[in-house]
């Protein structure tokens, strides 16, 4: 399922506005890389810091040698499946742990996933009933349970093998379709609201995220972790994996991420969130890692 949308001259001011909104919201939520307020000659001066958002979205940010020297790649041969077909793992952050698994999902499987959602996904197209053309439905999703198709069940089993974690209480696979102009502001996949606590009372907190990239994107669409100075460009067949929780079981604010505006093409991803239930022994909570309260 190949869909292309040509961007016109109207797209440039729209994307500039979108990037500014991402930076501004990210600054308010994260307190990082956003607005700096100073007093100069009795007047308040507000300086907007676009970095590292702009560089990360453009893909021009360069990590310091001290950080790069600690990163590495390896072939994972932890189990029998990996010995036959070892996973290609690229570690892009050690603490907190973020890694890429290359070549995990194949072209035929990607085509099947897209076809399974063909009846749900519709190309939105631009509309002109406002002051500039916009895409009202440029972010669409559909969910697939293991019982819906053998492919979905195979992908769940593959996730368990490459991550070493259990998908016993994992959420259904969510396939996400994006068009030009789509973006996402600062978010974290850990449980944040009381409604989510009640919804996932049986499954526990959202421990880790597995994100499949189902097509290449020529411009835009990077997933960025501003506080870690990490940008992950969409690469077909690659899987991004990260933990949303600290060793103490609390949500890790460093794992807040944004999705940069999509400048060309369309983007397909698939996401599966793993929960703590069933992983108590595989990824145990370590209360000793909690900070020691100050004594008065």
Descriptive keywords:
7 helices; 296 residues; 4-stranded antiparallel beta sheet; alpha+beta; 22% helix; disordered N terminus; 8-stranded antiparallel beta sheet
Secondary structure: elements and pairs:
Blueprint: H1 11-30, E1 35-40, E2 43-48, H2 53-58, H3 65-68, E3 73-76, H4 80-84, E4 87-93, E5 98-102, H5 107-116, E6 139-144, H6 150-163, E7 173-178, E8 184-187, H7 194-199, E9 206-213, E10 223-225, E11 230-232, E12 239-243, E13 257-259, E14 267-275
Antiparallel strand pairs: 1-2, 3-4, 4-5, 5-12, 6-7, 7-14, 8-13, 9-12, 9-14, 10-11, 10-13
Topology pattern, helix = H, strand = E:
HEEHHEHEEHEHEEHEEEEEE
How many β-strand runs?
A: 14
Structural class by secondary-structure content: alpha+beta
- Distance N to C terminus: 64 Å
Count of separate DSSP helical elements: 7
**Oligomeric form of this entry?**
single chain
Tell me roughly what share of residues is in helical segments: 10-25%
Q: pLDDT below 50 for ≥5 consecutive residues: which ranges? A: 1-7, 21-33, 124-137
Beta-strand residue fraction: 25-35%
What would the principal axes of the Cα set say about the shape? globular
The biggest beta sheet is recorded as: 8 strands, antiparallel
C-alpha Rg (nearest Å):
20 Å
User: Which strand order spans the largest sheet, edge to edge or round the barrel?
Assistant: 3-4-5-12-9-14-7-6
Overall average pLDDT:
79
